[in-house]
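Researcher: Here's the sequence for the chain we discussed earlier.
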Amino acid sequence: MRPLTRLLRVGGVELGAGRPVRVQTMGNLPLTEVGANIAQIERCAALGCEIFRLALPDDFLLPFFGEIIAHSPLPVIADIHFHPSLLRKALEAGAAGARINPGNVGSSTDWSETVRLFEDLGAVMRIGVNGGSLNKEALKLHGHTAEALVASAQEWSNRLYDLGFYRFKVSLKSSDVRTTVQAYRLFSKVSDIPLHIGLTEAGPLPEGLIKSSAALGTLLLEGIGDTLRISLTAPPEEEVKAAWELLSSLNLRRRWPEVISCPLCARSSYPFTELLPKLLPRIKSLSLPIKVAFMGCEVNGPGEAREAEIGLAFSKGKAFLFRKGEIVERGDPEPMVERLLQVLEEMARDPS
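Model: Thanks. This is the structure I predict for it:
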């Protein structure tokens, strides 16, 4: 198991040093649409997002950026590419931190003054190394490999250390699952720097979700990762939901019920494909970190769903409500489905 990383505070959010893995996402709206951006951040916060990132590509967007930050319920990170001069202005506008890409900010930049500003404002930097924009030196030495990602991250980490700056985390992302996993493994063996994990340019649903789960699930099971973003070609709300589903499936964090259900086969006696899409919005709206099971027959019934706190098993035209593997009520399917929802709502109101 990887040793503990050091503690960082991003706004009011603590990460690293054994804190829970923090959920991030990134806005996808023009900054000029201030109200829409604030509403998007609020929706993501309601779903459990803890840190929000916004791209800041140009100076003229700074007034809009600052207004969004002023009304954001979450700490906002500025995403800076090509224009390191924007770092200072983004922090002065209220950003809790900034992400820079070493591959495109220029190696000749003098960071000493910027680092002092980070320290003065208590802001956090992320060194975001990307497989698609590695610097020429790393590519020449290592090619498009995990070693190239690690070399770039180490170079920039050492540069910040030389300036006496430690308020930063690192990410080492590729669009390739194996390369990403190997890069994080290599870096985590030689550093206690907090890690933001992700798979860049993962793609649309469902492909992007599958690739991200393969990479990030592997890392999280190995104890690697202090904060994560599941980067999808989809609205940020979907990224937040996906992150929580992944953390829940690994028993790392839960926010709403985790629904488990049996695979369909000839024994199934109830139309799950029609039932679950109707129930999931109601179930997932509950702040109740438990497992809820739906089982289609007596084979995959209460006995095989004993780890679930509550669930339904269907058999021979009847439905059986069970709790921790023991049947507590039975009846016709439709009334028992409503009964399950009623019990879940009661549990959410009184978790004890």
